[in-house]
């Protein structure tokens, strides 16, 4: 991906652990590498097709001067987050915040923090089989769309299915959501669990009835196996009610473990069940 590079933008602001740093202020140097596609701007010679680095520099200054943080880690995080959310053409940002006058009592040229943040593509399974099923799903989609650091890309059609595992319950309505998010997997999981809790979900029976079910199916091409979270979702290749709506919005996305597209997995399951 192409890069727009800003080197050592000098800003005087008030960040630091010590009281004197917050009162007197000091110089900071901010650098940023902005990942974007510059092809259209390069061909058309029109600024609206690129990231206006002048506006970016002024926005960095506003963030630096309009806040007071203890840590330059927080400064860097805030800058990266705001740039990614406010400049829609930026797909990834590397931000370095350098502190030339770090008060450590020893000769030093500078101390800096450098981070990399980007938009991640995730696919979420959504379902309900209690109460007003469609309303629970509609409300969850709306709440996801209201998150500032998350953008809904596509929402599949909804399908009615028989319950999976525990069959002594009502039929489900299921679908899938494709979204871009700045949340890491754990943050995304925590957010989705919060939505389930708001919908009154109770986890009393494994695979039991639920007002709202939200599962992280895929997250970029990440392979993660932790006690609280497995990505890709282990049940993807077994569940028609996942593969059918997921193949509608992401047919050519490849399962990072099985190395097969979602459409291929759907066709294989249909052939097996026929």
TrEMBL record:
SUPFAM superfamilies reported for this sequence: 6-hydroxymethyl-7,8-dihydropterin pyrophosphokinase, HPPK, Tetrahydrobiopterin biosynthesis enzymes-like
A GO biological-process term: tetrahydrofolate biosynthetic process
Catalytic activity: 7,8-dihydroneopterin = 6-hydroxymethyl-7,8-dihydropterin + glycolaldehyde; 6-hydroxymethyl-7,8-dihydropterin + ATP = (7,8-dihydropterin-6-yl)methyl diphosphate + AMP + H(+)
Biological or metabolic pathway of the protein: Cofactor biosynthesis; tetrahydrofolate biosynthesis; 2-amino-4-hydroxy-6-hydroxymethyl-7,8-dihydropteridine diphosphate from 7,8-dihydroneopterin triphosphate: step 4/4; Cofactor biosynthesis; tetrahydrofolate biosynthesis; 2-amino-4-hydroxy-6-hydroxymethyl-7,8-dihydropteridine diphosphate from 7,8-dihydroneopterin triphosphate: step 3/4
GO molecular function: 2-amino-4-hydroxy-6-hydroxymethyldihydropteridine diphosphokinase activity; ATP binding; dihydroneopterin aldolase activity; kinase activity
Family designation: In the N-terminal section; belongs to the DHNA family.
The name this protein goes by in its record: Bifunctional folate synthesis protein
Natural source organism: Anaerostipes rhamnosivorans
